[in-house]
Amino acid sequence: MPASGVRRPLVASAWVSKISGKIASPYAGIWPVFLLAVLLAVGWFAGGPLFRLAERSFWSLNSLVVEPCYAACREGLQHLLEQLIPARSTKAQRSKQGRRHKRQHGSRAHQ
């Protein structure tokens, strides 16, 4: 291939980049403003329904996943702790340990 054949694509690509830069420069400042206006319009007209949809989805996720996992972990920990408490301990000793646990970890520990 001759050396002039190699230069032609380089010259052509430089020319295209120069021309595209001249065309895109005047509109470069308009696109961010236009995008912001579109986002504000979507938020104005669809913000309420989108917020309600997100809120409903959150509570559905909470009731379907979070609460059952919490209950399973709570019951599992209670079962584990009951196994760790000595079998010969009296009801008063277990109650004392429970009160100590409540004091340390808050009142929601045994709900």
Helix content: over 70%
Overall shape: it is elongated
Q: How many extended strands?
A: 0
Number of helices: 3
* Rg value: 34 Å
Averaging pLDDT over every residue, what do you get? 78
**Broad structural category:** mainly alpha
Helices and strands, in order, run as HHH
Largest sheet: none
Unreliable sequence segments: none
In percent, how much strand structure appears in the residues? under 5%
Q: What's the number of domains?
A: 1
Q: Report how far apart the termini are.
A: 84 Å
Structure report:
The protein is mainly alpha-helical. The protein has one domain (32-110). The chain has 3 helices and no strands. The chain has helices spanning 3-28, 30-84, 91-105. The mean pLDDT is 78.
Quick summary:
The chain is built from three helices and no strands. The chain is an all-alpha fold and 111 residues long.
